[in-house]
Amino acid sequence: MRGGFEAFGMEASIPDRLLSFWSRDDGPSRHYFVIQRSEESPNEVVSRLENIYLELDDQCWGGYGGIERVKLAPNGLTVHLDRHWATEVIGTDTVRIAVAFTDENYRAAVQALRIIMLGYEDRLEITGVFHAGERLGG
Questions:
Q1: For residue 64, what are the domain limits?
Q2: For the domain that residue 41 is a member of, what is the CATH number?
Q3: What is the pTM of this model?
Q4: How many CB atoms lie within 10 A of CB 16?
Q5: Which of 51, 89, 98, 128 is most buried, judged by most C-beta within 10 A?
Q6: How many helices (H) and strands (E) does the chain have?
Q7: What's the structural domain count of the chain?
């Protein structure tokens, strides 16, 4: 399904500045989403966020930049994209990944997104409350 899916698995890698999700299905109906900060400019802030790579289901639906806003919540990830992405790349302006996070996985996703979105904090929204009133804010 172009534009989103229900995630079965997740990888959050701080060293690779990467967050990825994939569906349960194998074969042609399998879905995945990757968001990753470029190795060439990990600390730079550039226009259109062109040092952040996105990919949905296939490399032909991937590329750099075009992020309007990223929202992480305990029930999933939503990425709002600019007009170029919506019309030229994947055919939608919003990617929604439904996720049943564990506390540990949610914290890992928060850490990875904070590194990926470093310098673009005004486009990142993180919500969630866990353990003894600890608030995860962004």
A1: 4-128
A2: 2.30.29
A3: 0.87
A4: 15
A5: 51
A6: 2, 12
A7: 1
